[in-house]
Amino acid sequence: MRAHPKLFEITPQEIAPGVAEDKARVIDLDQVVTVLGTRRHCIKTAEFTDLEPDGLEYKLYCRGLGIVRERDMRGGTAHDHLVKVANR
To answer: Does 4 fall in a domain?
Structure first.
């Protein structure tokens, strides 16, 4: 995730030609998420790859936490969310 993402900007997530070519498009910069409290101004992305043209995954990123939710919208059934932050 870029430090200052822009709406609809596409950013490479992984660059390994023919193996991992994931990209993310920023689709919202102001999501409100309830995970470990209420988080505002979270970023929602749509992730995709030309290697799996039927796949689409949404991810929510919150400042100070990183990825707090992931959900396959097409091409899978994964649905993950942050439940705990452990300090080491």
So the answer is: no
